[in-house]
Amino acid sequence: MVRTGIATAARAVGAAVLAAAGALGLAAGMAVGPAMDTAQAAPHSPNPPNSWGTLYGDPEAAAPFWHYQQYDDDCVPMSVADVVGELTTNQPSEHAIVELAQSTPSITHSGPVYTLPEKQNHGDGTSFNDEPVLLAHYGIRAVTTSKTRTEKTGLPTGMQSLQQALAKGRKVIAGVNAEVIWREPVKDKNKDGDPEANHAVVVTGVDTARGLVHLNDSGSRKGRDEMVPIDIFVRSWDSSGQQMTVTS
After folding, report:
1. Domain coordinates in residue numbering, the chain
2. Which fold has domain 8-247?
3. Does 39 score more than 50 pLDDT?
């Protein structure tokens, strides 16, 4: 289980359910939460390709739903709030989404999805696998997958799958290593010394013409439509086994 938590102070220095395969239009998956009316974005084609590449997603439309997180470890709830806003235009505040996460049982560990950090201490963050749990409270179905979960969920991960999701109007939250994204020294590493996932971001677009991934990154003060080279994004995303939560 990976739980995320990024200190907002670090960015101040730097400038800081059961969803069916057909519903996703990608593959079969896991569903979470009670049956509710599902808020969905209308599927649409990616911007027309030119001789250089294609823009998948709509970063400009997504940008207004970015907000900077006030706690050091609530990137998952804030990413969920961003997606809710994009799909319904009724975005929960940070206070509201944190309250929901505090009162909702986790499906991956004992206790609630999220617990506020104690004063002057870093929090434990939130499991990526609990993202669909929070989204379900807003009538949004989603599947979370990764390299190790593809067989179970039926939903492949990787850049091609991510681009296909964006092309269909789906919303995507990805588990990443924040320091790689922010071009900072990597502090969180696994036993092999590789970057470890510690952050969640909303992927709002992939521009193959410019070689950029567009993000709404609540952990950075410059995170509204944050643009990252594709290779940097993939290196950061690899830290979670290319985990992503995709709406239906």
Report:
1. 8-247
2. Cathepsin B; Chain A (3.90.70)
3. no
